[in-house]
Automatic annotation (TrEMBL):
GO terms for biological process: oxygen transport. This is Group 1 truncated hemoglobin. Transmembrane segments: none annotated. Its cofactor is heme. The keyword Cell division does not apply. It comes from the Eukaryota. Keywords: Heme, Iron, Metal-binding, Oxygen transport, Transport. Pfam families: Bac_globin.
């Protein structure tokens, strides 16, 4: 069973992603990266990415993360903050601790593509 399936599939990943962005938007240390962004579209893109990364049936067809984040100046500390918001969203959704950590580990694999400062 894939991590995607263990988490509950697309609907569950999308719900977690929605909470993840609510957490980010409430945090002044990282919310500025999303000024002027259509958050419904952003949530859909991120949920699609996470579904693919977690073993879902659809391959990621979106833009390369390194290119998307190239000029954003995201620091290691800011990425760590965002990972904390993901962990919180997963925990709030009632995801078991071991699955939370497995999901966070998958998200951590893109740190090198996202951190540019």
């Amino acid at each position: 069973m894939t991590l995607f399936e263990q988490l509950g599939g697309e609907a569950a990943v999308t719900a977690v992603t929605t909470q993840f962005y609510a957490n980010i938007q409430a945090d002044a240390t990282v919310s500025n990266f999303f000024n002027g962004i259509n958050m419904a579209d952003q949530t859909n893109k991120t949920a699609s990415f996470l579904c693919a990364a977690l073993g879902g049936p659809k391959a990621w067809g979106g833009r390369n993360l390194k290119e998307v984040h190239a000029n954003m100046g995201i620091t290691n500390d800011q990425f760590t903050t965002v990972i904390g918001h993901l962990r919180s969203a997963l925990t709030s959704a009632g995801v078991a601790a071991d699955l939370v950590e497995q999901t966070v580990a998958v998200a951590e694999t893109v740190r090198g593509d996202v951190v540019t400062a």
